[in-house]
């Protein structure tokens, strides 16, 4: 858990909006997203594919620079608004204070340079190190990430490494300058269960070893339960629910959160014949309903869900908020609906 919950948040995002222009139309991808990450905190950002998780991370990193993209709101990191920084200022911050583990390390690494050369480059770009000093640090980092024979591995190209080793090398690069904030975008995708557990264990140790905070992007609720202090659930580019992970798993207040938890195989009790599934698919950004975006797929939809604007966050407990009509005020969702045993990897 965060060491000091009374200190100002390391990252404070308020009303983040990301939109794209296509054929003369403005298409909202992320709408009015607000959250904060404290020092040495791990925040899970969860939701189905297309919820806007990776777009949020790319916007915070200043990596969305295509024509027709508009990013608004504020994202204050150590009191400095990331969205107002110039390209030069952001390049100085990126990699040194804020680092990112990309979803696919095979495409994130440059294929024509060795793993060691690429980590060396980042070290020398942000720290006053010679080539020899940078390589020594690179080998140390790879060893700390559990890479066997790190000196020889540093001389290999990305395609010569397994998926698990590439992911460890990507984490080593991200941690090379001891960043205050690490953004991990699906760091366990396509990895087998054993390697996935090792990667998650490495991430849990980041805050004790490096004092880092982590924004963990995933669609795996089991990973969230094992790793994250708090959780933010996204649906169709909008925040659906947020709160402490333990509270959110025990008392889901949004039907979408409850349905995600219901789709996890139970660890105890009788095995169901078929896991519950959420009917339909998330709406396209231009086809979002006027009110709650989840209404067309929700079994608890009623008249108050449909009018515009979308429901605002309501507080249902200490630091637990939900963008839905509260139980007892028209929403028939029981407080413990769909609750199952916390999944363990």
From TrEMBL:
Gene3D superfamilies, sorted: P-loop containing nucleotide triphosphate hydrolases
GO biological process annotation, one example: transmembrane transport
A GO MF label: ATP binding
SUPFAM superfamilies, per database record: P-loop containing nucleoside triphosphate hydrolases (SSF52540)
Keyword line: ATP-binding, Cell membrane, Membrane, Nucleotide-binding, Transport
GO cellular component: plasma membrane
Stated name of the protein: ABC transporter ATP-binding protein
Family affiliation: Belongs to the ABC transporter superfamily.
Cellular localization per UniProt: Cell inner membrane
Stretches assigned to the ABC transporter domain: 11-261
CDD domains per the UniProt record, alphabetical: ABC_NikE_OppD_transporters
Membrane topology category: Peripheral membrane protein
Signal peptide: none
């Amino acid at each position: 858990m965060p060491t000091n919950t009374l200190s100002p948040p390391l990252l404070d995002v308020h009303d983040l909006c990301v939109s794209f222009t296509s054929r003369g139309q403005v298409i909202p991808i992320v709408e009015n997203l607000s959250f904060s990450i404290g020092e040495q905190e791990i925040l899970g950002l969860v939701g189905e594919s297309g919820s806007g998780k990776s777009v949020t991370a790319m916007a915070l990193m200043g990596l969305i620079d295509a024509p027709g993209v508009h990013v608004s709101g504020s994202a204050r990191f150590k009191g400095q608004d990331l969205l107002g920084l110039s390209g030069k200022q952001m390049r100085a911050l990126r990699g040194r204070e804020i680092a990112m583990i990309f979803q696919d390390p095979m495409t994130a690494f440059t294929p024509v340079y060795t793993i060691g050369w690429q980590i060396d480059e980042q070290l020398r770009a942000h720290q006053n190190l010679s080539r020899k000093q940078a390589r020594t640090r690179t080998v140390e980092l790879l060893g700390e990430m559990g890479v066997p024979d790190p000196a020889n591995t540093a001389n290999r190209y990305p395609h010569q490494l397994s998926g698990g080793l590439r992911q460890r090398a990507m984490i080593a690069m991200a941690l090379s300058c001891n960043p205050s904030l690490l953004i991990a975008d699906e760091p366990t995708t396509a990895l087998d269960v054993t390697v996935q557990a090792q990667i998650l264990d490495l991430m849990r140790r980041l805050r004790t070893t490096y004092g880092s905070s982590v924004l963990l992007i995933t669609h795996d609720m089991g990973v969230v339960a094992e790793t994250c202090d708090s959780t933010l659930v996204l649906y169709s580019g909008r925040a659906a629910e947020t709160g402490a992970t333990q509270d959110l798993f025990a008392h889901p207040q949004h039907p979408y959160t409850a349905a995600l938890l219901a789709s996890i195989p139970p660890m105890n009790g009788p095995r169901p014949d078929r896991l519950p599934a959420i009917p339909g698919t998330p709406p396209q950004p231009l086809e979002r309903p006027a009110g709650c975006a989840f209404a067309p797929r929700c079994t608890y939809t009623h008249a108050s869900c449909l009018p515009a604007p979308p429901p605002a966050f309501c507080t249902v407990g200490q630091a637990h908020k939900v963008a839905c009509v509260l139980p007892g005020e028209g929403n028939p969702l029981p407080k413990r609906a769909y609750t199952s045993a916390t999944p363990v990897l």
